[in-house]
Amino acid sequence: MTARDLIPIAVLTILAALLPLVVTSSPVLNFLVFMLIVALGAQGWNILGGFGGQFSFGHAAFFGTGAYATAILQLHYGVNAWAGLVLATVAGGVVGWVIGFLSFRSGLRGSYFALVTLAFAEVFRILANAASFTGGAAGLLIKLDVRAANLQFDDRAVFYWLVLAFVAAVLLLTRWIQRSRFGAQLVAVRENEDAAKALGVDSLKVKLRAIALSGAVTALSGCLYAQYFLYIDANIAYGSWISVELLLAPIIGGVGTVFGPVVGALTLHGLGEIAKQFAGRIPGIDLIVFGGVLVLAVAFARGGILGLLERLRDRGRGMVTRGPKEVSHAGR
Amino acid sequence: MLAVEGVSKRFGGLMAVDSATLSLQPGGIIGLIGPNGAGKTTLFSMISGFIAPTDGRIRFEGTDITAEEPHRRAERGIGRTFQIVQPFAGLTVCENIAVGAYLRHAKRADAIAKAREVARRVGLGAELDRPAGGLTVAGRKRLELARALATEPKLLLLDEVLAGLNPSEIRDIIPVIRGIRDEGVTILMIEHVMQAVMNLCERVYVLAQGRMIAEGPPAVVCADTRVIEAYLGHGAAARLKAEGAAHG
Ligand SMILES: Nc1ncnc2c1ncn2[C@@H]1O[C@H](COP(=O)(O)OP(=O)(O)OP(=O)(O)O)[C@@H](O)[C@H]1O
Ligand SMILES: [Mg+2]
């Protein structure tokens, strides 16, 4: 990675880190933390879906695993919250690898893979809703005990910085993927799996690595969610709402790009929040906005917001627009 | 270096390849010709590991590779191109070739350098940053060749890399193929352009309806009665001879 790769990430992270110095209202900080948690989970989705072209409709399976893992470890086994965070992330990676092994080895692709991930998430939701060690339908409450050692902070800004640090770390990770052999092979598998194999790419191994990484990052976001709100139940942690959010953010922002998931999460939740301010009495107005933004993105910005900006920039320079990029997106 | 021993492939009721045998020594350009639907591409797919044979063995440098995955065979040094080109359409020409180069070069800088070198060799030097999806037919064929070449194969399987090219494009690419051979890469090429086969190949195999019907130097094979009949139908050889006599 070169300085040119790192500077945009560093600049954006520093700017975002300064935000709590200006904004001190709790609801706004709450909103920002939640938005960053979604962005982090979406970054996880993007590793597998964006770079690997394996669209998952069930990333709740990982989000929920991260959330439940840390909650259960703390409540039933007295594990420290920081250790819980590490273990939850690992658990997400393992669950990802297993789901990947079961589906990729039997050659599932495209819509079949999407449906299988959806099914896994639903099965996990139903199990978590029924089992006693997950708290059943009542869910789990992480004990309120505000100490840094417990990953609970007096000041919301501290949690904001923590989540931001993880988002920045995954931005770096994603940039590394983009510049590495692993990333080149992953993208090759997305574009044409047979051609990739002929060039010596072990497509199963590459996809398994991608889904394990993806699951780990999304589980981390789920863990942070549980740790911030200190409460989860099956419909929150394994609910389809989160699968949809994690899928929408990268698509809106720019699938297979480094910043896409973050831009997408910010846009979706920003617009949703604005809509709530203006038409708060209409229930579900933010969902209507999500739908509207998705339709706009699919109709006018196949590469997401970042793809659109890139095309505008190219046009501004008087260059030809990057048509074939659209073709490759439409082909998936 | 390559031994195909009595290999067959059945697709339902159709014997696409019927106990074909073929053996290559290191070095040289060997042709594989035959009418449309003879089973040439299917044989390539079995050598490169994309299709499992119904019967028979494939050995590469003495090792039985019949059951090996395609990527393992590429690691061993078997490179292939696809008759129906398979570019990574959303990537640039350079990125396409780099995927091949990464097989032997783990570092990005090395892989990119290798990709640029290979691109220049096959005449894609000026298109490095163009999206592969925007290349002409000739460009895509060159890209197929470049990607396979970037894996630094010992054995290169070329499936109709000249098809769809005009005569001047063919004239440009023939020296490139010779150059690859001169570096010690063994080439097995499927080709319909007979002039190129005559020009390039030391030896050709002829496949017809899944069976290997002839083998030898191109000039000898093309005069073979069975080969002429395979292409032109039963009795064609006799007709040609009679016509030749009448005109002579
Ligand atoms: N996957 C498949 N399933 C069923 N039949 C197939 C399959 N692949 C090839 N065939 C059939 O097997 C026969 C051999 O096909 P193949 O593509 O190997 O011929 P070829 O010699 O490469 O022909 P061409 O010169 O037209 O490329 C054809 O009759 C074809 O229709
Ligand atoms: Mg063919």
TrEMBL record, chain A:
Compartments in which it is found: Cell membrane
Record key words, sorted: Cell membrane, Membrane, Transmembrane, Transmembrane helix
CDD domains referenced in this protein's UniProt entry, alphabetically: TM_PBP1_LivM_like
Main location: membrane
PANTHER family in alphabetical order: HIGH-AFFINITY BRANCHED-CHAIN AMINO ACID TRANSPORT PROTEIN BRAE, HIGH-AFFINITY BRANCHED-CHAIN AMINO ACID TRANSPORT SYSTEM PERMEASE
Official protein name in the record: Amino acid/amide ABC transporter membrane protein 2, HAAT family
GO molecular function, one term: branched-chain amino acid transmembrane transporter activity
One GO cellular component, as annotated: plasma membrane
Entry's transmembrane regions: 6-24, 31-51, 57-75, 82-104, 158-177, 210-232, 244-267, 287-309
Topology of this chain in the membrane: Multi-pass membrane protein
From TrEMBL, chain B:
Family matches, as CDD domains: ABC_Mj1267_LivG_branched
Name of the protein this chain belongs to: Amino acid/amide ABC transporter ATP-binding protein 1, HAAT family
Domain ABC transporter: 2-234
PROSITE patterns: ABC_TRANSPORTER_2
Record key words, sorted: ATP-binding, Nucleotide-binding, Transport
GO CC terms, sorted: plasma membrane
Gene3D superfamilies named among the record's database cross-references: P-loop containing nucleotide triphosphate hydrolases (3.40.50.300)
Record's signal peptide: none
Superkingdom of origin organism: Bacteria
GO biological process: D-alanine transmembrane transport; L-alanine transport; L-isoleucine import across plasma membrane; L-valine import across plasma membrane
One of the Pfam families matching this protein, by short name: BCA_ABC_TP_C
Xref: InterPro entries: AAA+_ATPase, ABC_AA/LPS_Transport, ABC_transporter-like_ATP-bd, BCA_ABC_TP_C, P-loop_NTPase
Gene Ontology MF, one: ATP binding
